[in-house]
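Below is how a single chain appears once it has passed through the pipeline. First comes the sequence as given, then the structure the pipeline wrote out for it. We keep one example in the README because the format questions we get most often are answered faster by looking than by reading.
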Amino acid sequence: MERLDSDVRPYTVIDPSWGMALKVYWSFLWRFFFWVIPAGMFFAVIAGMIIKLLGGTDKEMGTVGALVMFFLMATMVIVVIKRLLRIRYRNFRIVTLAREKD
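Resulting structure:
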């Protein structure tokens, strides 16, 4: 676990506003449309072409392409969310805190 002592400051716990939620949502959405969907489509097409070159049917090509796209997108979404947790928005940031042991 990484701790940045120079980054530890007093903080104020606030209730998230709709504006904050919208900023986080927009931050996720544009990254999803800009990175995740094109990468998923690219690798799905490549996988489909490989299946076709190996003598697969159109149905097999579509199935493999869809599976590749699904698993790649599922993985990339996790990466995008992890990056969102590190962003410093204009007037807030998302902080994760360890729970105290009971």
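The two ends are 21 Å apart (CA to CA).

See the next section for the split statistics.
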